[in-house]
Amino acid sequence: MGPRRTRRPTIIDVAERAGVSKSTAARALTGSSNITEETRDRVVKAAEAVGYERNHLAVGMRSGRSGMLGLVIPDITNPFWADVARGAQDRAVKAGASLLVFSSDWNPEAEAAHLRTLRRARVDGAVVNPVSDSFEDLDRFGLPCVFIGSSAERFPDVSSVGSDIAQAVRVGLDHLVSRGHVTPALILGPKSRLARARFLRAVHEHCVERDVDPAVLAIEDGEYTVEGGREAMKRLLAQPRVGHLAVFAANDMMALGAMMAVRDAGLDCPRDVSILGFDGIPSGEFAWPGLTTVAKPGRDIGERAIECLFDEIDHKPEHRRVYMPCRLLERGSLADLSAAAPKRMAGAGRI
Fold first, then answer.
1. Is the entire prediction scored with pTM above 0.90?
2. Given pLDDT bands bounded at 50, 70 and 90, which one contains residue 226?
3. Are 165 and 194 in contact (CB under 8 A)?
4. Domain 165-295: which CATH class?
5. Within a 10 A sphere around the Cβ of 219, how many other Cβ atoms?
6. Is CATH 1.10.260.40 what the domain over 11-54 is classified as, yes or no?
7. Is 329 exposed, middle or buried (0-12, 13-18, 19+ CB in 10 A)?
8. Which residue has the higher pLDDT, 180 or 154?
9. I need a surface site. Which of 72, 163, 179, 347 has the fewest CB within 10 A?
10. Of 290, 285, 296, 286, nearest to 333 (Cα)?
11. Cβ distance 74 to 104 under 8 Å?
12. Are 285 and 331 contacting, i.e. CB atoms less than 8 angstroms apart?
């Protein structure tokens, strides 16, 4: 049996095992950008092999940083936001930082409380999805900050990352038209949310380009939840209509709720009702039928937001909005009526 180790491994042990200098090993473990990936991987493996753990307290005392970051999202139970959190965590860990994650539950007061907690924890910075379109706590936050979500666009002086909503809605509508669904009904979020306005603006622009009167589209609002989509779908089904009903929901949770309402009414999706979602959450793949959706890059948004936050912390921000493209995931919730559908329609009756 070999001798017992009586001291904690140091950065010198890591450097010797990786075959690099002490300063190179330290930069590799703190996420410095001027280190090659090959060197970083070698240093990380060496640190794991010798059992090295950074002394965050000592590092913070020397650098003035805690090595901790914050993330405040509106709903951790929504798989999309969980995906954002996973991407943020992966990028933070890669840089040797820890991430504190909070869910505001769409409550501005809870959000403000979480921000106060992050200040007390002395995090180096935070990524926040403002649940209010008038984010009044920014000046009092006093830390480097990056916004995510639609509300971020109201703050041009703050770096932000989000989905390209206009591109995403166009992708969804183009696919609906290609399937013969010329004037789909819409299930949107609350009127108080900027995301709803962004979505609706993109719909209107698409309609005008195709010489379709946007006023003919049936619209129901609801919360961004399964139950919100279920209730909105019930109201749509109660309206008089002729022929097949197609619905574009503003997120996948609402779309899944809409599918439940269709089943509750004794109807079939997609035979009687076609439904298109928006987010790309994994549970849509396991619905029956599988939910066709426009997928937002949740994990990529989380990773990119943390990268922007590091720029903020290092005092080299660009203060711009990063728009990330979305893609269509074709599953089974849309009927194909393209053989019988007209390519243009103006002044059509309400769905």
1. no
2. very high
3. no
4. alpha beta
5. 16
6. yes
7. middle
8. 180
9. 347
10. 290
11. yes
12. yes
